Amino acid sequence: MSSLVEYDANHCFHPFSNYQELNSQGARMIERGEGIYIYDDAGNEILDAMSGLWCTNLGYSCQPLIDAATTQMQSLPYYNLFFQTTHPPAAELAKLLAEVTPDGMNHVFFTGSGSECNDTVIRMVRYYWNAKGQSSKKTIISRKNAYHGSTIAGASLGGMGLMHKQTGCVVPDIVHIDQPYAFEECLDGDLQAFGLERAQQLEQKILELGEANVAAFIAEPIQGAGGVIIPPESYWPEIQRICDKYDILLIADEVICGFGRTGEWFASDTYNIRPDLLCMAKGITSGYLPLGGVMVREQVADVLKSANSEFAHGFTYSGHPVACAVAIANIKQMQSRQIIPNLQQSIAPYFAEKWSELMHHPLVGEARVKGLVAAIEIVQDKTTKQRYDESLQVGMLCRENCIKSGLVMRAVGDTMIVSPPLIITLEEIDLLVERAKQALDLTMASL
Ligand SMILES: *Cc1c(COP(=O)(O)O)cnc(C)c1O
């Protein structure tokens, strides 16, 4: 072990890690990044098909973002938005966000992260219904296997079994319905009927709890950390219909989907949904600095603005000026470099075509893709879709083989997922898929 890896092993606890395992091997040391590649301390070049944690959309060496941070650091490195103050980057970014987010969303509440967005959402939803004199509307409906962050509130909204088990106490008045995971739960059935059935669980839950007690429904348009679960086309229109019918706020957690991931600025545009609240983080700064924000639809904003009491909520780093300056530069880069039109016309269709080739591999039971987010399901038997025994940890094995092949893919059980930087080129897509095939071959050879 190098001395730095040793310092790390001796002194640093890592998120979502098994410490026994981590300390026996030491962590992988990533030293620098360039374009869509990262480099470890041995100088190995690795194609980062996960964009860090779904965030480095403009890659690792976007000079305008670095310049924006430097300039802002020099003029005002910190100030806050508390007690009726603001600063230029927050004001300018708020206006830009109103332009690029879906129509009818013109106000933002800044946070420092995705988890803080979801904490904000819980407070805001309750504050909204109280202000409307409907304080019984308290329960928030979410989904199993959803990821909404790692604060206590984020994890409570989320539907990750292990997180719920370890935390024990969770925020009250949150319930979960099933996810629309067709590969696991609808193998031979009718996909669109399955999508409708899963959406209609929302209606059943509302009827069970009573419309007067339900405040909101929260979901990721495409579940990310749960394994890139792309819903059937029938799912979202039905969810929208139900939220409208029962006067339930719709919250889109677009922390992953936002800022181009699905081929539009927001997945709410892709799926034609009209959220009341929309959570953003990750891609908002391409991950260069921590920042999040909750967009608020006009009708909700009007109620919040008319409530004559203080909204008792906020974070020291809500709308940090340097992070806001980077977000402004990030949006302007996306606009001036035509990132989204280029995705739609060339990158996303090519990626879908190449990714689908992985279906020919003997280990792959499904290859699915939307925009620049994709998954493959590793199976033992392509026809029956039978999985390998869980104890073999095939996903983990494949992840290690990816690294050996110069590729970051993430494993969620035996589902391998990618979310490459939006600046990926056609040639780099070829390389990504080539390395993925190599990793699958290595995995098959060792099974
Ligand atoms: C990552 C993520 C979060 C949490 O964001 P943090 O910045 O890690 O707090 C919330 N929601 C979704 C959908 C995410 O993917």
From TrEMBL:
UniProt GO MF annotations: transaminase activity
UniProt keyword Iron present: no
Record's keyword annotation contains Ligase: no
UniProt superkingdom: Bacteria
Alphabetic keyword roster: Aminotransferase, Pyridoxal phosphate, Transferase
Transmembrane residue ranges: none
Signal peptide: none
UniProt cofactor(s): pyridoxal 5'-phosphate
Pfam short name (any one): Aminotran_3
EC number: 2.6.1.113
Family to which this protein belongs: Belongs to the class-III pyridoxal-phosphate-dependent aminotransferase family.
PANTHER family named in the record: ADENOSYLMETHIONINE-8-AMINO-7-OXONONANOATE AMINOTRANSFERASE
Protein name: Putrescine--pyruvate aminotransferase
Organism name: Vibrio hippocampi
Organism lineage string: Bacteria, Pseudomonadati, Pseudomonadota, Gammaproteobacteria, Vibrionales
